[in-house]
Design goal:
By secondary structure, this protein is of the alpha+beta class. Helices cover 22% and strands 13% of the residues.
Length: 107
Amino acid sequence: MSYVVTESCIKCKYTDCVDVCPVDCFREGPNFLVIDPDECIDCTLCVAECPVEAIFAEDDVPVHQQHFTALNAELSKVWKPIIEKKDALADADEWANVTEKLDKLER
């Protein structure tokens, strides 16, 4: 089982989670992060670090967001690894509590 980044991360891209990952399993897109399920070791460290609570264990992803499991797997194959913390997007705080923003995901 791996962990999955869900919708709350879109247009925020806080990278606190990246800083604690012992295996560098995060991948970075323009306005979203994903977890490579083949690299994730199920350590749970990233979950507590996410300020928008976007990371879930694969078995705990909310029903209405389960499509993010496949999306993480897909995008982790094409996006580059991110291995250190960066500043969040400039307007991240404005988007932090917005829901239903999948249409805002930039690939």
